[in-house]
Amino acid sequence: MKKVKTIKKLINKQKEEYGKPIALYNQNEKFKTIVNYTEYYIKEKLQKNDVLIIGSKSVSKSMYELIRMIREKFPKKRIMLALDSEINTFNENVTIIPKKSDDFIMHLAKSQVIINNVILPSYFIKREDQVVIQLTDLFSGIFSSEDQYKIYKTSIQRTLFQCSHILFKNSEESTFYIDLFNLRGIYNGRVYESANLYFSSNRLGMTTNNELLILTKKYSIEEVTILLEKARNKFENFYVYVHPSLYNFYENIQELQYILIASTITKEDLNLQSSRIISDNLSDLIGDDNFYFEIQKNEIKISSYDKQHYATNFDIIERILKNKEKDYIKVNNDKKNILMYCGGFLNNGITSSAINLSHAIDYNDYNLIIIEKGNLGKIEKDNMRRIHPNANLLYRGGQSNTTLKEYRKNMFVTQRRGYRKYLGKKDLQRFYNRELRRLVGNIDIDIAVDFSGYVPFWTAMFAFSKAKKKVIYQHNDLKSETEKQIQGQFKHKYILPRVFSLYNFFDKVISV
């Protein structure tokens, strides 16, 4: 009788586990979106004539010009325009797609060409033959070297690793952002350094010699006050334009009342090419009289600057679509890539060892890529600042793309009994290799190192990866760890056996 009860309990448990992803799919819109996209990603064929352009709320002058160019040069192309809001009328032969729709998810997976001016959804993965072109209006000029660990920055980083082409506005911006976003040495796409696109709409009828102070970063009230004083020494009657993402911050500063330009007005409306401009972003300095300002040692310095190059056509994108590219640069090298997960960078021995190891790598032969969670606290940030500066820091954000079948198997491995042979390897390999591609793009991983050895998800990620060599570390007597109680709880009793079940997929198990 006891045996029958045990079997019934086991059957009911299996039914419950089988039904979990179905219930989650029906109740959670985010999970439903991820599953739907994954199914399209697996099953849909790329449509070679489909071009998906992704914008934000409205259709800008530059977007009109981009559509016009594609219509003229590539008449067989079908253009889809994805926006945050629905537009019922449009005077071009274009299909409008709301970004929250299933059509958008499907076209992300099957469009041959994607031209993007926002952050790509966290579930998006560039397919092998997709052309994904990233414009940089989204973040041009807004970051500094102090922004290394901001969530917004890490979302942009993931977007860039999913792109085949990045169109920076100038070489200074290219150099700075390649380092800030940790692209140096490992990004496999093509980079353009002179794609400062500007299309003047002049819908406001603005005259020449407008005087503008442009702010693309967040400054304190004291700094704004000093900037306004310095601007008055240069200009007689100026207005202030701020990056759209910062408008809510600056509109509350009393000193900017009556001179802050409304958030509904874009740079295209300002007649920049004939204006007098003070800005902290070099790409803005395309006026008749230009001044660049920066803060050095807590002092604001303003200096004259030559008129910067800007383009009024989409020649670069046209050449990309025609496969006749030139004048691009590549930032990857021929070194071997080591991908390492270090356990979270809390204050412990594993963190100290990982930091020391980062300083022992021969960077003449290897790229060290350290991957971590995207949401970091102060302790983690402080510890990560001690990593060797040549290491590339990448971050995991969002949820893993999955089918319902893959979800069940992954949960079994990471949340229940660990890996068992009857689960097979095919679905798990597909799931984890897709997840790795979601995080790091098409980077080839030569050596995968689970330096932590405590977290089943990361152990499984490396175990089922296509890395040429796989290594996992043991930092303690792990059998004793399974028996250790912390505040009356067995913290590792059930977690570590899931890790142990994956050891056979590694080439080396290194006991410290």
What does this structure look like?
The chain is 34% helix and 20% strand. It is an alpha/beta fold. The strands form 4 sheets. Strands 3-2-1-4-5-6-7 form a 7-stranded parallel β-sheet, sandwiched between helices. Strands 15-14-13-16-17-20 form a 6-stranded parallel β-sheet. Strands 9-8-10-11-12 form a 5-stranded mixed β-sheet, covered by helices on one side. Helix 1 (2-27) packs across helix 2 and helix 2 (29-43) packs parallel to helix 4 (102-110). The mean pLDDT is 92.
Brief synopsis:
The protein is of the alpha/beta class. It is built from 16 helices and 20 strands.
Total count of helical runs of at least 4 residues = 16
Are there runs of 5+ residues with pLDDT below 50, and where? none
Which structural category do the helix and sheet elements fall into? alpha/beta
On the 0 to 100 scale, the average pLDDT is 92
In spatial order, strands of the major sheet run 3-2-1-4-5-6-7
Silhouette: globular
Topology (SSEs and partners):
Blueprint: H1 2-27, H2 29-43, E1 47-54, H3 61-73, E2 78-83, E3 95-98, H4 102-110, E4 111-116, E5 131-135, H5 151-161, E6 165-167, H6 171-180, E7 190-192, E8 211-215, H7 221-234, E9 239-242, H8 247-250, E10 276-279, E11 289-296, E12 299-305, H9 315-321, E13 336-341, H10 349-358, E14 366-373, H11 378-384, E15 392-396, H12 404-416, H13 426-440, E16 447-450, H14 456-463, E17 469-474, H15 478-483, E18 485-486, E19 489-490, H16 495-500, E20 508-511
Parallel strand pairs: 1-2, 1-4, 2-3, 4-5, 5-6, 6-7, 8-9, 8-10, 10-11, 13-14, 13-16, 14-15, 16-17, 17-20
Antiparallel strand pairs: 11-12, 18-19
Helix pairs in contact: 1-2, 2-4
